[in-house]
Amino acid sequence: MTTNPFDLTGKLALITGGGTGLGTGMAKAMCNAGAKVVITGRREPVLVDAVKELGENAHFIVHDMNELDTIPGLVEKVEQTFGPIDVVVNNAGINMKKPAIEVSDEDFNQIIHTNLNAVFALTRECAKKMLPRKQGSIIMISSMTAMYGIDRVAAYSASKSAVKGMIMGLASEFSPFGVRINAIAPGFIESPMMLNAMDNDPQRKAKVLGRTPMGTFGKAEDIGYTAVFLASNAARFVTGTTIPVDGGNSIGF
């Protein structure tokens, strides 16, 4: 038996949107910590490449989280194929950047559907398995938009703020049964797309870094390490909370 409380050996993690970005970063960190990881996403070639990079502890299932009626089947397939789910990371999500007065009802509902309805549906189905086993860690991905106001992302901000509230409600319901539920709120994390956007908008880059006390952008592994913590026994007394991983951005001035 390991004495390392961060060790995930023997645990199975399901990570949605695991083929790129933060999803892959979290999958890599969990694989390195000893977990078996199943990533999902809509694009098979992307998932194939990600699994090749992640190694023998990683597997994939092509799945669209927007199709809510298929989510129970996804959970059954994962458990029948790979074993009981110990950790679920609700990472899949979409954003939309446009002035609020230009956001249609259809636009708004699309963001809420993916970022909130699908997240709840997967959480519910995994909880049905975890609660009788009296163990499990459910991890959500929140956002700086749930911490302070950011313009032109009204629908996204609403969805992530709702997730933050849902976590507290579900934690009070699930935690007595040994199932913990928490969120990570990433700050500004490096990616080729983000860095390119920042370089093309020096004023915005200066504004972001100016209110980040650590004075730099984060990296995908910073989110991955936090996910490992929340998935592990090291966080056995942590539930119902949102952890900003943002270099202080959410409290900076």
Note down, in words, how this protein is organized.
- Helices cover 45% and strands 15% of the residues.
- With 253 residues, it is α/β, with parallel strands linked by helices.
- It has a single domain (12-190, 220-245), classed as NAD(P)-binding Rossmann-like Domain (Rossmann fold).
- Strands 3-2-1-4-5-6-7 form a 7-stranded parallel beta sheet, sandwiched between helices.
- α1 (21-32) crosses α8.
- Belongs to the short-chain dehydrogenases/reductases (SDR) family.
- Residues 11-187 form the Ketoreductase domain.
- Keywords: Oxidoreductase.
- This is Gluconate 5-dehydrogenase.
- InterPro entries: KR_dom, NAD(P)-bd_dom_sf, Sc_DH/Rdtase_CS, SDR_fam.
Features:
Rossmann fold, alpha/beta, 7 strands, NAD(P)-bd_dom_sf, 253 residues, seven-stranded parallel β-sheet, globular, single chain
In sequence order, what are the helices and strands, one letter per element?
EHEHEHEHEHEHHHE
Report how far the terminal alpha carbons are from each other.
46 Å
By DSSP, the count of extended strands is 7
What share of the residues does DSSP label as strand, in percent? 15-25%
* Secondary-structure-derived class: alpha/beta
Residue ranges: pLDDT <50 for 5 or more in a row? none
* Secondary structure tally, helices: 8
The pLDDT mean sits at 96
Shape: globular
Q: Class in CATH?
A: Alpha Beta
The proportion of residues forming helix, as a percent range, comes to 40-55%
The biggest sheet, with number of strands, parallel, antiparallel or mixed sense and barrel status, is: 7 strands, parallel
CATH superfamily, called what?
NAD(P)-binding Rossmann-like Domain
CATH architecture: 3-Layer(aba) Sandwich
Order of adjacent strands in the largest pleated sheet: 3-2-1-4-5-6-7
Q: What would you report as the Rg, rounded to the nearest angstrom?
A: 18 Å
What's the CATH topology name?
Answer: Rossmann fold
The tally of domains stands at 1
